[in-house]
Amino acid sequence: MTMRLLACERCGQRVLIEKFSAAHTSVQWTGDASRCPVITARGRGMGHQERGCEVLHRTIDRAVREQRVPESRIELPIGDAIPRLH
Predict the structure, then answer these.
(1) CA distance 6 to 55
(2) Inside any domain, residue 32
(3) What is the DSSP code string of the chain?
(4) pLDDT by 10s per residue, the chain, length 86
């Protein structure tokens, strides 16, 4: 699976996302994250927690529920197919 373009339903900021599970989402901003009004309103630095936007998270969750963005499936090797490092 590859990342998919998605626009925030509040401000229209576009991000690339890939959803791996309910708890794991990769988000890559395509522009300046400080253009997001939710992030800008916080008035803090640009660390991991400060870059989060609740509206964007809801947009992503809705897109997954509506099957506009599928969850990626990674099949991990099992048994003898697991690579050994020694």
Answers:
(1) 12
(2) yes
(3) ---EEEE-TTT--EEEEEEEETTEEEEEESS-GGGSHHHHHH----STTTT--HHHHHHHHHHHHTTSSPBP------GGGS----
(4) 689 999 999 999 999 999 888 788 899 999 888 888 888 887 655 555 555 789 999 999 999 999 998 888 777 778 888 888 76
Domain that holds residue 60: 4-72
Q: Is residue 79 part of a domain?
A: no
Q: CA separation (Å) from 8 to 22, 51, 64?
A: 19, 14, 13
